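INFO batch 0412 | record 1 of 1 | parsing
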Amino acid sequence: MYYAPAKYRFKQMHFRFNLLMPKTASRSVISLIFLLSTTAYAQQGRLPQSEFDVRAPASWVHGSIGTMVVSRAECRSFPEDQLRQRIVGIAMQEWAYFGSPEYVIREDLDDLPDEDRRRRRPQLSLEESVRVASSIAGYWASTAEGGWIVARQNDEWNGPDGEAARWRDAWSAAFISWVMCEGGIAEAEQFEHAIAHHKYIDQAIRARDGQEASALYIAYDSGEAEVLPGDLLCTGSRPRYLSLSDRRSQIGVGARTHCDIVVSLDLEAGTIDTIGGNVQSAVTLKTITIAESGALLSPVDLEGRPVFAHLKLEIGSS
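INFO prediction complete | emitting tokens
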């Protein structure tokens, strides 16, 4: 699969995002993010907070590798008409900070034991692992469990692998939770900042069923609703859910699921770009296909897992 160089991908996504955003939405924040494609920030940096009002995730981290301590992040509140822009902008800024990696299809690892899966995930270089460690710890700070998770990661770093030790716990849901927390969704009844994706998937399903009136994300089956930047697309690997009804029958039960943030759509090319955390050990961009109607998603992701849930941000879309 061919991908254009990152600076051109940024420009393409900027154009597509502006076409798809509500006409009333301000685009100044996203325009600032796309400075990343033409400035020094394109090399693993973030915009200054004076230009894009986002606090670095490491703001909630004290100490160094092996002695890190995190404080619970204070989530922010922004007007609803800014949330979609901020969620996409923050996701893209973190992607740039990780060097703008793009997904590489690999062999299916879903059926391997957990420890084998962990060992066979792509591994960052020692230098890169050290550079991003406090950012990943900061993602955990958006969750109630972040303190003890980072504490036991210190044990990993103080073990035989030292600073090169992988993260013991998958941090993809923590990344989503931090983006929402910093993006402006502060209250748990609006979005559950959790260490497992199924927590906020279940919340969105309950919202669809009329049980969570304050939730900002509503669950739809794949292809049931129009997709916009800022929405979430979710897959399941254990079990491989095919639809919301599959998850409804197990709501509240632990499951291995994963969600990514939609950052742009190209209706002409039939693709959706998403960004997720802990995807091949980084904040990574994936591209999946759209069916002919332009609103329907491909039934599977790049490795064959069905997109069983579309969590739609139900504000600022009209």
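INFO post-check: Residues 1-5, 22-26 have pLDDT under 50 and may be disordered.
INFO record closed
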